[in-house]
UniProtKB/TrEMBL annotation:
This is Nuclear transport factor 2 family protein. It comes from the Bacteria.
Length: 83
């Protein structure tokens, strides 16, 4: 997936989630989403949203770090390539 497309999908997801427009956030996820964390795991986007979607009510702000979109192999949190 191209860098720009991925960046746009991430921004659309978090914009919808931060503004409690879960239909917008859900629309950019694949139906067969695989989500894993130490606390939980999901194999479908609908299951993820049924369990986690309400968490946006407590959200105050979403900010993006440049490193998330870096095309460098090993970006650090400050947006600079490592090594």
């Amino acid at each position: 997936m191209k860098h720009r497309v991925m960046k746009k999908l991430v921004e659309q997801y978090y914009q919808g989630w931060a503004q409690q427009r879960l239909d917008q956030a859900r629309a950019v996820l694949a139906h067969d989403l695989k989500f894993r964390s130490p606390q939980d795991s999901f194999d479908r986007a609908d299951d993820f949203f049924n369990q986690c979607g309400h968490l946006s009510q407590n959200l105050q702000r979403v900010s993006f770090r440049t490193a998330l979109y870096s095309e460098s192999k090993n970006p650090d949190p400050k947006g600079q390539a490592l090594g």
